[in-house]
Task: structure prediction
Amino acid sequence: MPTADLVFVNGPVFTAGPARAFARAIAVTGDRVSAIGDEKTVAESVGKKTRVVDLAGRMLTPGFQDAHCHPGSSGLDLLRCSFEGCHDADDAVAYVARYAAEHPNRPWIVGGGWIQTWFPKGCPPKEALDAVVPDRPVLVYNADGHGAWANSVALRMAGIDASTPDPADGRIERAIGNEPQGTLHEGATQAVEQLIPDDTPDELRSGLLAGQEYLLSKGITAWQDAHVDLETHAAYRRLAASEELIGTAVGAMWWRRDLGMEQLDDLEQMRSEPLGRYLPTTVKIMLDGVVENHTASMLEPYLDGDGGATDNTGIDFVEPSRLREIVTELDRRGFSCHFHAIGDAAVRNGLDAVETARLANGWTEARHHISHIQVVHPQDISRFRRLGVVANAQALWAQDGEDQAVLTRPYLGAERSGWQYPFGSFLRAGASLAMGSDWGVSTADVMDQIDAAVTRSNHDEPDLPPLNEDECITFLDALAGFTAGSAYVNHLDNGRGTLAPGMLADLAVLDRDPIAEGKIRDAEVAMTVAGGRVVYEET
Result:
């Protein structure tokens, strides 16, 4: 047995294999797992230069994989006007004022992270920004990225006024006299966005490095970036070429809904340019918006908030027959499709498109997956397994709170509210489950997300009942979703996601054993190993 560089002993080592088995020790030589088993087996590989880490009962797992996150834009937000640490509307306005004062030479104030429940009906007014930044344009996105808050300067520069029609894929929130209120939903943000100076290559590099640092600190050694455009693609390749890309990034290349099949040539070109740990293999297709602003695509209309009917069923960003054509061609060319689908109609449209592709092309190696899966009609649950579509869950959202009470249940009604985030139903139906954070919409902390998947409870509001408690899953099911499940979606399951000799040594060490202690969300990452190198260690 070769002499190991790293050895971990005396703790539960989760292998994430089909049996969900635990070992007691693991050895790493170079960038690979060289032995796994009990302490006696692994002890044979210990040499004079081996670093031996006593887990002392702490849990070791494969390095986590995040199947849906935004490290570039979220990293940039950390460096810009980020609302991290704000708790309400007053905090948000005060922060913008402080940020503007600290950056007097920036021509635009941009950033994101405000929460819809801080404002009436989830819509902050332009006047609040005008009061603190009257002389420069401001555009800051909400936490889920599906809406933005603009001041009057930005709206005027974009030519948005009372006579401006809503775009087909968005909505301008209105005040008295049809004047723009200050909140822009979905595609309505484009008129302002196009005026903002493009991020420079150095800014994109800094954003990705900041995002990577955060993900590694959470034990995440591989991720799928859910929005890779040409500029982000170039930034990843630059990091990979300089060997600054420590984790493995799978690029989900952005399908532009304002273009047609002509963009396939660009996607093919990007896919032909992998470099090191950067793998652009997937295409991201946005199917709808979100429930909170009533743009998620629903099979039946939204309610009006008081139990009354409306005629609004949300927005299909891609017309369903067109979607089937697009997905069939992408599948034929070997691309995996990563769908954003919040509403039950959007989920069904994604499944219908994959079914059409399967009938046309047969069963390919593509790993199609539907992210978010907030509202899923019960008739569609079994189709995930039958069609080989992975349910890509963002588990932190599966808990009750103000957003559910104010912005969701009154507009969905009781029956559809009960269809939210059906993780347990997916597993009972035999579907594959992957996990992703959607960071920076929410934290990338894996233990926080697993806790939500297991308990469906909001620990900040302990009096609230679990959200759809029968959809709880076990700790090991959720942990497998963040390891083997996401590795499958990422097409990385042939070398990582589980622990066995010969697998890449991507590891995460927790500061405790969450199963033994029974307190999942208290667990923190103490060490991250990527490719056999310790890349994060708690101090």
The first helix runs from residue 39 to 43.
